[in-house]
Amino acid sequence: MKKIFTSILLGTLLVLSCKPITGPKGHAIVFGIETYIPYASNLSLTIDDADSVASLLAMQGWTVQLITETNATKINLDAALKTLANSDLPVLFYYSGHGDYREAGEGLKYYIATYGALTSEFLTNPDELNAMFANNNIKHGIAILDSCNSGGFVSTDGTVSGVPADFSGTFTPVASLVNPAIDAYINYAQSNNVIVLSAAGAQELSWESASFGHGIFTYYLLKSAQYGDYDGDGFVSTVEAYAYASKALNANWNQSNSGSSYLPRFSGEPRDYLLFKTIK
Amino acid sequence: MKKNMQLAALLILIDAGSIAFAQESAPIPQEAKVTLSPSVRQVPLEYNAGLTVSIYSMTALFLTKEADYAGNLQAFSGLSAKSAIGRSFGIYLESTWGKMLPSTFGSSYFRYRGFELLSFSAGPFIDLSLLSNIPGNLQIGITGGAAFGYYRESNALFYFPILEPSCTMYRSSSRSWIAFSGSLSAPIYLKPQALSIGLGFQFGIVFLPLTKESKSTVSP
Fold first, then answer.
1. Are B96 and B148 within 8 A, CB to CB?
2. Which runs of E-coded beta strand occur in chain B?
3. Distance CA A120, CA A118 (A)
4. Of A26, A139, A178, the CB nearest to B68
5. Which site among B97, B104, B107, B158 would you substitute to test the A interface, given the most A Cβ atoms closer than 10 Å to its Cβ?
6. C-beta neighbour count of B35 within 10 angstroms
7. A270 with B105: Cβ contact below 8 A
8. What is d(CA A268, CA A143) in angstroms, rounded to the nearest whole number?
9. How far is B185 from chain A (nearest CA, A)?
10. Among A116, A77, A80, which Cα is nearest to A98's?
11. What is the complex's ipTM, to 2 decimals?
12. Separation of CA B113 from chain center
């Protein structure tokens, strides 16, 4: 009896000593770029995307650096990450702007069009982005990218996605993924530690719409803070935000714009970060 | 004498083929002719034809850890179908469907993702009564096999090997073709990105479809 009482007491002390999580905490770098002329067409709503995401994250408890237009360069991204070197907290990079891909020796190379010009020198590719996080010893990196071809930044990391590379409304049956999944295990090599939530697949365009007032993906990402708490724990994680944005985009945008269907993608990493406290 | 009686009682639990094996190692004295008591007759596993099928639920607590990241606890709940082929030793064939819940958020504001699991495994077991004076109905075994995890939210499938040592105790019921089992197991999930080691409890119903009449006496 004495032993049972002691065990209960120790267990209670252990539970009480664990500080409960009350909300998200971390650092966010938010990029928005509208001006691309003369290198590409200008965008209309990417600054609105960045402003809204920065406001929501700041309200939620993230420390935010909002960087737009001419300041949103690859060099400034690296500089911003340097200020967060060795952080034990999550570091989130949000980007809204153009994306692109180019032929490279071993295949296609994907980019986000950080400000400057649409040449490789100014663009940022997945290897460079991952290196910026790794070189600054940032273990808990999250990248949320609302741009065309942003799926090129998503590492499947030992998993096989049932969302086809060029999504047209149908998913690959799970049974067809069995052999690729075994191959993925055999050939697994951890490529990076940054969790990526992309607006579109590697071969897909990401759209913005004046009727939404945002990029479609960012619109639903923002809404996920209100409607994305699937497990009812009071928080919206990166997986939950992805799940909400993906379902809502597919149900609302893709159903009425079948010619421009696309779907968000998510990394195969086992980690899932706290993004928002649920807005009621 | 008491020890000899125990030995005889243990031998009664073993069918004719196994008795031959036992006789070579320990001849039974004449006075070992005994009549089965009702409690011995109820022992569920020894008088079937070496095949049991069980369905059980499993609850486990896992410690999941990705290299260079903190570990965190995850709960697992699942249903399994298991077949044990063999009497005092043999093999388990097992299939499990279950769900690993996400862990709680840790100090760096991350948790490990939950996933659905379907696994197929096989491996040897042995009845502990073969090794010592521990009465029958206690088996130890280890299974290994393949599992598929599925991240439903992101439609992603992944493969990983599994390993599961277990210790199972059986309990007879009032019906000759049904018994109950309780197991402690230590499942290990060798996922591509993270390792999960668990401690689980299983409760199951064992079907003895090929039960045959038990012998009432044993002659040397």
1. no
2. 51-66, 72-86, 89-100, 110-112, 115-127, 138-151, 156-172, 178-185, 188-190, 194-207
3. 7
4. A139
5. B158
6. 10
7. no
8. 13
9. 23
10. A116
11. 0.90
12. 28
Residue with tokens 């390993």: B163
Distance CA B145, CA B93 (A): 10
The three-state secondary structure class of A167 is coil
Measured CA to CA, the distance from residue B168 to residue B155 in angstroms comes to 36
Chain B CB contacts of A247 below 8 Å: none
Chain B residues with CB-CB distance to A160 below 8 A: 156-158
Sign, Cα dihedral of A69, A71, A77, A82: negative
CA distances to A44, A163, B8 from A242, rounded to whole Å, are 24, 13, 65
Residue A191 touches chain B, beta carbons under 8 Å: no
Gap between the Cα atoms of B65 and A273, Å rounded: 15
A23 touching B, CB under 8 A? no
* Residues of chain B contacting A167 with CB distance shorter than 8 Å: none
**Each residue's pLDDT tens digit, A58-82:** 999 999 999 999 999 999 999 999 9
Is the separation of the CB atoms in A133 and A83 below 8 Å? Answer: no
Q: How far apart are CA B107 and CA A25, in angstroms?
A: 10
Q: Distance (Å, rounded) from C-alpha A212 to C-alpha A52?
A: 13
pLDDT of A279 reads 94
* C-alpha–C-alpha distance, residues B219 and B181, integer Å: 31
Q: Can you tell me the distance from the alpha carbon of A254 to that of B112, in angstroms, rounded to the nearest whole number?
A: 31
Q: What are the helix (H) ranges across A151-262?
A: 178-186, 216-227, 238-248, 255-256
What's the pLDDT tens digit per position in B105-148? 988 999 999 999 999 999 999 988 766 666 557 899 999 999 99
With contact defined as beta carbons under 8 Å apart, do B164 and B56 qualify? Answer: no
pLDDT in tens, A103-147: 877 788 899 999 986 666 788 999 999 999 999 999 999 999 999
Question: Mean pLDDT of all residues in chain A?
Answer: 90
Contact B194 A156 (CB under 8 A): no
- CA A109, distance to chain mean position in Å, is 19
CA nearest to A142 within chain B: B110
CA dihedral A196, A200, A204, A205 (to 10 degrees): -120
Q: CB-based burial of residue B91 (10 Å sphere; 0-12 exposed, 13-18 middle, 19+ buried)?
A: middle
Give the number of C-alpha atoms closer than 13 A to the C-alpha of residue A90, restricted to the C-beta side.
32
| Closest CA–CA distance from residue A224 to any residue of chain B (Å) | 14
Chain A residues inside the 8 Å CB shell of B102: 231, 237, 272
How far apart CA B107 and CA A213 sit, in angstroms, is 36
